[in-house]
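Dear colleagues,

As part of the handover before I leave the project, I'm documenting each prediction I ran so the next person doesn't have to rerun anything. This entry is a single chain, and its sequence is reproduced below.
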Amino acid sequence: MPALPSRIWRKGAALLTVLIGVGLFAASVANAAGTGKPIRRALILGGGGPVGEAWESGVIARLMQKGVDVYGADKIIGTSAGAIVGARVALGMPPPDLLKAALAEFRSPPPSPERPPPPPDFSFLVSELEEMNKGEAPAQSIEAKIGAWARAAHPIVSEAEFVASFRRRFPKEEWPSRAYECVSVDAADGSLRVWDRSSDISPALAVASSCALPGLFLPVAIRGREYMDGGMRSATNADLARGCLSAIVLAPTIGPKDGLAKVTVDPLNRELRVLRDSGCKVELVVPDAASMKAFGGTLGDSSRAGAAMEAGRSEGSARADETAKLWQQDSRR
């Protein structure tokens, strides 16, 4: 996401944690992109704002430095901030550069405008996502309502400016690799959209659509349709890797055991059951106590990105041995 005035991040930070992570789980098909070949190893990167992006980058960089070939995944699924990190991994960006890239947008925040826009009002979005999590109404119909609201909301930047920020990050038109996929939601009908090499669009456009958080950014127009943040379906969309042999799942939105835990933990647990029921072995990495302290209780405060990255590196070190056992075992199958 483009760098935002700190005032916007601070005002919306508490709600942003909910919005990025609260999408309702809905089972969906997934296997080896129409090839019929089994996927051995999947890397699944959840949404999490600038803090989650930095934390995931720290975890991955340290795992690589510890000899865990995360970059060798047969499938990389990214949602929102995870779509940004996933694209960099799929491009083969060296770990030191991965770390630098995750902080680049936030080192020199732009000057605040003379009349900064008011902080976004997320009350409608929060209420709809809470309703969706109850499971009493079809998730797709609620997502369509959110999409209609997103298209009418006043964004903090124009769609052109928003997309341009991703073109600067991902200037090449070529898709990163066959393994990479990122997730967004059709703003008109609430349906799932998974972008991959066969979609024949630029990675910048695909990643932008996965990061277009309603209330902050307009949905991204692609071939006559408009797409919004993939986190409106799920923070991780881990079920899309169903049928793989093993999966590493990074979920920065799973944090404090407070009133928001249900809307983030329960959907992920359902997705993990889908994976395990399909025969997949899962290594779930979520923020530990030190990471949560580094986050400062929210995922939207970009001033915490550096601390979150260091905490992620520490977690990567702590989880390297067990992750390596799973990853190396399935690399030989």
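Residues 305-331 form the longest helix (27 residues). The mean pLDDT is 84.

All the best with the project,
I.
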